[in-house]
């Protein structure tokens, strides 16, 4: 996502890069990360890293999701591994429901009027959605997020989870709006929900960060019951994302932790289930863009997110 979009306000503080340093990401919740994850924040980074919607939200909205469609990713690279985990089977996540929210929608570009209408996010009103950002070469955030979502769905279904997507690129044709995305997870009674994004900051700003819900109790928003579980979920995802992708935590928000707390996002404010956002990297930075446009790296990104969710839901 780009911080210039109406749903995403600019970060309050930026930390300039200071040259090579070693950064340690440690557990912020006891036992959440198995020890310290240490890596080179500059130079080592991402280039050297280790390698279903089955029901719609209970809403009358025209954007309620329908049955999942397995197909090639929008960029032509495989979104799934060819298997059909939905056929059943055992796994540590049997009985668990995970909602994946691919940030933005490839069709948003053709529906400016619809996505610009204001919706209630509890604390105030914001635009329904944005188009998202893109690399300098035109690879869009919406294509990236949908591809990672497909890969993540396959990994989680292989662990036995029931997986639902808020949208699948072609259905609905645009959106859903940020409030609908939150309600989708609530109606699904998700055990965990993840919104996948990529950032649109300046060249030289790189790395991932996980966005956690802050405590909000205003209007239709009340996150007090999900702040703790969401932090646990986000911390586990951050630790596994570092390990599986080699991508460093953001050097421009989060003070090197890879974690940011926000209270201005409708997708988090209106959630009643544990939910986080992940900005997998900065599409406007040349180093990060080289990773985000790689199918191999996107598989690693999906693996890191999956490992974090499995750890959260399985209690390991």
What is the element layout, followed by pairings?
Layout: E1 22-25, E2 37-40, E3 97-102, H1 112-116, E4 118-120, E5 125-127, H2 141-158, E6 162-165, H3 178-187, E7 192-199, E8 209-213, E9 217-218, E10 221-222, H4 227-245, E11 259-262, H5 266-269, E12 275-282, H6 286-292, H7 295-314
Parallel strand pairs: 3-6, 3-7, 7-12, 8-11
Antiparallel strand pairs: 1-2, 4-5, 8-12, 9-10
Helix pairs in contact: 2-7, 4-7
Could you explain the architecture of this structure?
The chain has 316 residues and is α/β, with parallel strands linked by helices. It is 26% helix and 17% strand. The protein contains seven helices and twelve strands. The strands form four sheets. It has a six-stranded mixed β-sheet with strand order 6-3-7-12-8-11, sandwiched between helices. Strands 1-2 form a two-stranded antiparallel ribbon. Helix 2 crosses helix 7. The protein is globular. The N terminus is likely disordered.
- Would you list the SSEs in sequence order as H and E? EEEHEEHEHEEEEHEHEHH
- Class from helix and strand fractions: alpha/beta
Q: Unreliable stretches, pLDDT < 50, 5 or more residues?
A: 2-88
Count helical runs. 7
Widest sheet: strand order?
6-3-7-12-8-11
Helix content: 25-40%
Strand elements, count: 12
Shape: globular
Roughly how many Å is the radius of gyration?
A: 18 Å
Strand content: 15-25%
């Amino acid at each position: 996502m780009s911080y210039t979009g109406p749903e995403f306000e600019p970060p309050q503080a930026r930390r300039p890069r200071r040259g090579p340093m070693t950064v340690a990401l440690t557990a912020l919740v006891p036992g959440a990360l198995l020890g310290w994850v240490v890596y080179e924040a500059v130079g080592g980074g991402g280039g050297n890293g280790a390698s279903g919607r089955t029901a719609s939200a209970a809403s009358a909205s025209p954007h309620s999701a329908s049955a999942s469609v397995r197909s090639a990713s929008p960029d032509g690279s495989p979104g799934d591994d060819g298997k059909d985990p939905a056929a059943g089977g055992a796994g540590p996540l049997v009985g668990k429901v995970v909602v994946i929210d691919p940030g933005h929608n490839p069709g948003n570009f053709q529906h400016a009027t619809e996505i610009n209408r204001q919706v209630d996010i509890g604390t105030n009103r914001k635009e329904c959605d944005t188009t998202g950002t893109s690399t300098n070469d035109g690879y869009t955030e919406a294509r990236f997020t949908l591809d990672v979502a497909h890969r993540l769905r396959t990994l989680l279904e292989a662990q036995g989870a029931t997986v639902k997507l808020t949208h699948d690129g072609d259905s609905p044709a645009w959106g859903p709006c940020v409030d609908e995305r939150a309600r989708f997870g609530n109606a699904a009674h998700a055990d965990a929900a993840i919104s996948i994004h990529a950032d649109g900051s300046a060249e030289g700003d790189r790395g991932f960060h996980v966005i956690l819900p802050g405590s909000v109790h205003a209007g239709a928003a009340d996150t007090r019951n999900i702040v703790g579980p969401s932090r646990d979920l986000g911390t586990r995802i951050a630790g596994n994302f570092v390990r599986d992708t080699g991508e460093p935590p953001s050097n421009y928000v989060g003070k090197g932790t890879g974690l940011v707390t926000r209270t201005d996002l409708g997708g988090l404010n209106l959630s009643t289930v544990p939910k986080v956002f992940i900005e997998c990297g900065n599409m406007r930075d040349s180093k990060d863009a080289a990773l985000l446009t790689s199918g191999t790296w996107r598989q690693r990104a999906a693996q890191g997110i999956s490992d974090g969710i499995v750890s959260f839901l399985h209690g390991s």
